[in-house]
Amino acid sequence: MSKLIKEIENGLADANIDLEKIIEYEQKLVKEYNIITEKYRILFRKIDTKQKIKRQKIIDNCSHNYIMYSEYHNDKYFVCDKCGHETY
Q1: Would you say 8 and 25 are in contact if contact means Cβ atoms under 8 Å apart?
Q2: 3-state secondary structure of 76
Q3: What confidence tier does 1 reach under pLDDT thresholds 50, 70, 90?
Q4: 80 and which of 36, 39, 51, 64 could share a cystine (Cβ 3.0–4.6 Å)?
């Protein structure tokens, strides 16, 4: 555990802690959390971008075979049975 977490836990155990100190702990914790998770957020963004690019390539290279679906009376949409692309 980090020193900050121990400091916050010890501080919150005090029954007479004032609101300003609680807010200060929260701000410190948010700052540390953002530093720790920054690398993960960057990787998630890269993964999401790669997925979108690969998905778009699959859709662009597909010779679509659309199947019509209708959930409501006049609401029709089409889904390709090969790549899953939806259109209206």
Answers
A1: yes
A2: strand
A3: low
A4: 64
